[in-house]
Amino acid sequence: MKEAFEKALFFEISKWENSKLREAALYALQGEAKRIRPIIALWIAKELDPDYENYHPMIALELAHTSSLILDDLPCMDDAKTRRNKQALHLHYNEQEAILVAVGLISESYMQLHLGAAKLNDCGAANRRFEILNQSLHFTALAGGLSGAPLGQWMDLTISPIHSHPLEKLMQKKTGVFFESAFVLGWLFGNGSLEKLPLVVEASNIFGIMFQIMDDFLDLEEDAQERPYANYVLKNGKAESFRYLEQKKERLSALLEQLGLFKLQQALLEPLEHLLLLHQ
Q1: Interatomic CA distance for residues 1 and 128, integer angstroms
Q2: Alpha-carbon span 193 to 187, nearest angstrom
Q3: Do the beta carbons of residue 142 and residue 21 sit within 8 Å?
Q4: Any idea what the CATH number is for the domain that residue 220 is in?
Q5: Which helix (H) or strand (E) holds 263?
Q6: Domain span at residue 46?
Q7: Cα separation, 253 vs 264, whole angstroms
Q8: How far apart are CA 31 and CA 28, in angstroms?
Q9: Predicted local distance difference test score (pLDDT) of residue 53
Q10: How many domains does the chain have?
Q11: What is the Cα–Cα distance from 174 to 217, expressed in whole angstroms?
Q12: Predicted local distance difference test score (pLDDT) of residue 277
């Protein structure tokens, strides 16, 4: 699934005007990327429609997410030196080109939503094309707007021992919003019921928080030295974190069953259970 997605992704990039910015964008999109968000969207769409082949919404997710990573890595933000196991974009090229690529990728992600909606003419969802595109634009704009990932990044930059933020809110804004987009776009373009969209959103929010807490487990040593106040596990303790994760896991499992996403349920929850066992 990942291989097919990346083939579609790089085919779309090959259509862009040949320039230094396209070269830099390609660099940012390559490397050891997990593609978790587009793969989740594909899992959902293919579970709803086994013949699903419309990769444009998933490409939109990857472009928007990569844009956020480029901006996060800048010296004025996280000042990261590496990304995807290679030099960060602003170091391999320069800051000006990195910013321009990040801005351009946001608009390119909306272009992919447009192309994805146009492709609905070829399948059974054509009569719902307007509503699918309308909801897709809504959730994509929420993720990248001032109540979404930018707010999460600001909270992450400004949190300190004397300037705290609710960690659940920070996790939802910084990490959860792109998972929300992934769940929603997979559901919408897979022709899922609009009436069940609130359940999809709830499931995505729970998974986003669980994902970040598990990431906090992996970062325990590093965060203990540098930012213990920004790590959910260090702030709440392992026992409370395990209890919270188990509670959320049960709710997520129930929601995925209600939505009929049994393959996704297995794919998402088994690795989480394995990681829980490793840290107990």
Answers
A1: 26
A2: 8
A3: no
A4: 1.10.600.10
A5: helix 262-279
A6: 2-279
A7: 10
A8: 8
A9: 94
A10: 1
A11: 17
A12: 65
How high is the pLDDT of residue 199?
98
Q: CA 44 to CA 271: how far, in whole Å?
A: 17
State the pLDDT at residue 51. 93
Q: Is the dihedral of CA 2, 217, 214, 153 positive or negative?
A: negative
- Nearest-Å Rg of the Cα atoms of the chain is 19
Alpha-carbon torsion angle 234, 240, 245, 250, nearest 10: -170
Joined tokens for residue 51: 């013949």
- pLDDT score of 120: 87
d(CA 75, CA 66): 17
Q: Which of 250, 149, 136 is nearest to 182 (CA)?
A: 136
| Separation between Cα atoms, residue 66 and residue 280, nearest integer Å | 33
> Using an 8 Å Cβ cutoff, are 62 and 37 in contact?
yes
Closest CA to 5 of 47, 49, 52, 50: 52
Q: Nearest 5°: CA angle at 177, between 140 and 147?
A: 80
H or E element: which one contains 116?
Answer: helix 95-118
Mean pLDDT split into 10-residue runs, the chain, 280 residues? 95 98 98 94 96 97 97 96 96 98 98 94 73 95 95 94 92 94 97 96 96 91 91 94 92 96 90 65
Residues 6 or more apart whose CB falls under 8 angstroms from that of 70 comprise: 28, 89, 90, 98, 99, 101, 102, 105
